[in-house]
Structure formats: structure tokens, C-alpha cells
Amino acid sequence: MSRYRWTLTAVVGVVAFAVLLTWVGRSSPPSAASGTGNAALIPVDQRMAAAEFTGLDGWLNSKPLTINGLRGKVVLVDFWTFSCVNCVRTIPHLQHLEQTYGNRGLVIVGVHSPEFDFEKQQSNVAAAVHRFRVTWPVALDSEMNTWTAYGNQYWPAEYLVDQSGRVAYIHDGEGDYQITESAIAALLGVTGASPTPAPPTPDISTQTPELYAGSERGQLADGQPYGQSGQPVSYPDPGAPHQADRIQVTGTWADHGQYLVSTTPGHIRLNFSARDVYLVAGQNSGSPVHVTITVDRAPVAAGRRGPDLTESGIDIGRQQLYHLLTGEDGSSRQLIDIAVPAGMRLYTFTFG
């Protein structure tokens, strides 16, 4: 099944219907209308049984759970993966839901379905669960078996299961938090609930899309070629890339499909447009690597540094999502230049 990262901040009910159409074994799927309260829910007589959690590699924060064993509860099944910035940005929303409705009959189950191989390692997922303060049960869906059982296609995606074990609501991507919360409150019979006000939806029409570095899904700037798998290729330094929204590398790099590895010191450059810049990266040899960053050939001012960036740069250790820049213009082009030593793995740039 195709996998996608969702880059919009909200979806409408038509998308929920389209995803439900892909559900394995479901011949006449219902639709979930966009709205508030009961209007957001699939009509009771059209709800279908939720797929079981299946083919898992284990659980974090919980003993093994089943949909059948959770009958009587409202279950929010959240498909996510820890290197997906869109998933990470939903975590505060999920924390709010757990704090507000956890003692009223809501159970959140995070199904961690990885995009990259390093996200299949339980120690890496456990570190991310701790880092992001995820306290609800997390199912390790390393081989995407539960993902497939649900016919899912997106990170993040939320499936709301009613007390009888039937899917009552589906939402793909970020946003629509008030609608999701109203649907939960309606299923639980909570009256007078005041959903958290939603933040304004930013304009992402000019934002750089997610960019992959490896040859499986990537395309380097200005026609830079990939070499044979695992074989170092020397890339000259022509200065700033001519092509926007494409990753440029200099120095010597080896392609490994999902990622590039620097085998000598070099640079990563990108002409981008976004308010926030994130990097999925890691070290290749077991020891952290230190990288330095400039924007438009100048050091990054304190107010523009993401939480992972210090005045001296970033120590890239565990393979994960790093928040580099925040509060950028977002409406104009800027050049980020990352000076790297040998031994860094580069997976993706993502933006917000």
C-alpha cells in the first residue's frame, strides 16, 4: 500500500470517505461528515467493525491490548511515526484529550507504523515516546500489519472506535481538533464540553514540500546524480544551488536508498520557503557528529533557532527529527547551509 505524509493542516469529510473506501474487506463504507458534535460521526447504522491490532512487535506503556478487550470504551487509534513532524505536532492535542477524557471512558492507542528502517527499532521508538511525553499505550507496528488491516494511507491518521467496537469517525492529517474532540464528547455523552480553540490555519501554499535525500524518493538539486548503492560519490562545491526546493550536497556522499551518508566533510544546502525547518538525520558510526548552520550566510539569531539548535550548532546523535529553525519569514526564499563532518546520515527535510 502506498504511504504518504500529510502536508496539509486539515482535511474535509470527503477525504475521510476516500480513505474509508480503501478499508480492506469493506464493500459499502459510510462517510463521516465534517462538522461539530454528532454531525462529525458516522451514522450508527453505517458503522463497521474496527480491525484488530495485528502482527505487532510489542507494546510500550501498556500490556497488549485488543479492540475486543476495549469494548465499553471509546478508543482513539492514532497512526503515527516519530520522524513525522505532522505526527509530532498532533501530540499536544492527544495529551489534551487524554487529560480531559481519559477518566471518562476514552482510551488512546498510538499505533507506531514506521516510514524508515531506524523507526523499527524498539529502543528508538521508546526514546521518542519519552522525549515527546507520550503516556498512552503505543503498539509497535513495525511491519505495517495493523496499518494494512485498517487500509490506512497517512501519517497521522485517527480512527475513533465506539463502545461497541465500530469505527465512528476518521480523520487524516493535522487539524480539525475541535471536530475530533466534539466527536469524542458526543460518543462519551459528555455535555457542555468546550473543545480547545483551534489555532489559526497557516497559509502553506508557498511552503517547500517535504524533501527526501536518498535515491528511493529523492532528487538532488541541479541534476546532481546518485551513485551506485553504498559507493561514495564526490560532489563539487558550485556555491548556492540554482534550483529551489531541492537538496544540494558537497563533499563525498554514499547513497543508501532511504538516506545519504557523508564520507568526508561537506555541506548540505537548500533554498527553501517555510516558517519552521526540521531535519531527519542521525550519525552513522555510533558517535554524535557536530554540524553548524547558517541562513543566508549568517549565523542563526537566538530567536530563530529551533529547540534543537544552539549557538554552536547541533550534535546529531540518535536518528530522529531535529527542529532547526523557527519563526522564519515563510513568504520569501532563504538559503540554509549545514556544514557536516564525515559520518552523518541525511534522510529528509520537513517544514511547517
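[next item in queue]
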Amino acid sequence: MSNDNLVKMANQIAHYFDSEPDHAKAVQGVRQHLQSFWTPAMRRQLAAWVEAHAGEGLDAKVREAL
């Protein structure tokens, strides 16, 4: 899967949790979703992209969840 698609999907997950008033719960929701529904390879690819691009363009909740 392309990095652009992973970033887009991760941001969509984070935006789903935008309505959660407790930031820590929102981050935990993103983390849980990534653990439950993304393959380890997808998580590793996204983490490598974050490291290479300093997380530019990725929602803060996703960066924290990783």
C-alpha cells in the first residue's frame, strides 16, 4: 500500500475520534483501531514514514498513538 494511502487512512481514523472530548481517550481509540485492524506491516510502514517525514501531514492523535 502506498504511504499516501496509509497517511490518509490514519488521518480518517483520527478524525473519527475528533468528537471525543478526552484527548487521551481519543489517542487510545486510534491506537486500538490500528492494533485491531491494521496489519503489523502497515503499522511498521506508517511508523517508518513518520520517522522519515517527521510526521508532517499526519494528525497528532496518530503520531501519539504510534
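[queue empty]
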